[in-house]
Every structure is written in C-alpha cells, then in structure tokens.
Amino acid sequence: MNVYELNSTEKYHKETFSLEAMVTMATSIDSVINLNDGTAMPMFGLGTAWTDECSQAVSYAIEQGYRMIDTAQRYGNEEDVGKGIAMSGIDRKNLFIVTKQWQNGHDACIQGLQRSLVRLDMDYIDLFLIHGPREGRNVATYKAMFELKKQGLVRSVGVSNFNIHHLEGLRNAGLPTPSVNQIELHPWLQPREIIDYCKKHNITVMGYSPLVKSKMLKNQQICDLAKTYNKTTAQILIRWSVQHGYITIPKSSKPNRIKENMQVFDWTLTEDDMDFLVRII
C-alpha cells in the first residue's frame, strides 16, 4: 500500500500518483492511500453514524476540505448525505463515498446497492463494505459486490467488523482480498491480531469511532495530554489514529468540531506519548 498527497485539482478515479510523493501516514487532509486494487482513497474523512443535522454537517465538512464521507444503509442517513454533497457544490467525482451493505445475501446486496444509489443520488459508490459478518452469507454477499463492481457501480470492495476467521473464509473460497477492513479503533480498543493480519495480507485498516463515541473525552489522562499539547482531547485521539497510519473518520455535526478535527496534521505526539496511549488500557 502506498500513500500519496493529492492536490485539489486531481480526481481520485483518474490520476496516477508519483512515488516521489509517497509518505508513511497522512500528512494532510489531502493524503490518499493506494488500496490493493489500485483505488486511491483519502486517509481522512467524515463519519456520519447517527449524526444530527447530517446534510449540513456533510456540506460544511466538504467546504472545509474533507473529501471522504462514510455512511451506511443502517444509519438511515444516505439521503441526507446525498443532499449534503449536493449542497456543497463540489463535483461528485472529486469525492470518495463509502457506504455499507446491512442485510447479507446475494440478492439483498444487489438490491441494497441499488437503493443506496437512489438515496445518495449517485451513479456509483467508491467503496462498498459488508457492514458485518453473517455466518453462511458472507461469501454470497461478497460475490454480489464484485458483480456490482464489474458493472461499474462500485469502485472498490471491502468489509467491516470482520475478524480473522471471517477473512479466512473469503480467502478459502478463492475470492479477491478485501481492499479495506473497517473496524472500531482507538486507544481503548486495539485489536492487534486483526490489524497484523490485515497488514500481512495488504488489507487497509480503516478505524471508526476514533473518539470512542465521546465517552473518553473527559478522561483525565487524555485531558492532561491535551493541556500539554494545547489541543482538544478529540485532537489527541484523532492524532493517535493518524500517527499509526490508519484511515480515520471522526464524526461531528458541529461546525467548530468538524474544523478542529481536521487540524491534526501539523504537529505530532512524542514516541513516549504514543506508547502511553498504546498502554492506556
């Protein structure tokens, strides 16, 4: 996997990026990673799970420079995400849209994607994920996703919340390796075995809930770090994900926090503080 800087005039679905621009982690909101299928994906985006005022949040985030938006059928907000994108005035081709299939099964997946496209008011999805494993249906769902990719309705296919045995099931079925595995990821949940497996098999790790669903923003240890760096507690947690090289999608519906959350690229946590956060649990 290679990570690159993408300037504002480049489009994710057309450009070939220079190896001279390669970095090991996101260094700006424009950083992208080359997935195992060749798709270029932004390393930073907006999460929208159960977000209030979703359309306004999406539009504002895009205006601020966010180029990746993560949604899902389960969230019930795909239509609002689509409206927010339209409100932003940015060409859809300059955005990277992630959504997830909730109901597993071949026909359910085909129909689900069609409904998602209608709700989002789009012709294609950049990254389509199985939202979660369902024993006995993962393979059928995954095969359907590649049928959709062949039709040009999906650019890249991945999974979410998959453990090693679920990924092994796809591999043993002779199916292509997922481009992404989206998992909950923050200092209090660091599933080392699945992260190592994904790295070994060239599956990009995408972390959701980097802010721990706001449950730890008042944690005294994180507050102490925030004071040391003169940052918000949210910025400390987001920087931890960025500095590990994970794709991350902090969510907020508040304009000031959406803007603050992206201000994590011009400073670093020390090695000692990164180690402290690794051991915080």
From TrEMBL:
Location of the active site: Y75
Annotated ranges, domain NADP-dependent oxidoreductase: 52-277
Transmembrane regions: none
GO molecular function: oxidoreductase activity
Site features described as Lowers pKa of active site Tyr, chain residue numbers: K100
UniProt keyword list: Oxidoreductase
Positions with a binding annotation for substrate: H131
Family matches, as Gene3D superfamilies: NADP-dependent oxidoreductase domain
Family: Belongs to the aldo/keto reductase family.
Protein name: NADP-dependent oxidoreductase domain-containing protein
Species in which this protein is naturally found: Mytilus coruscus
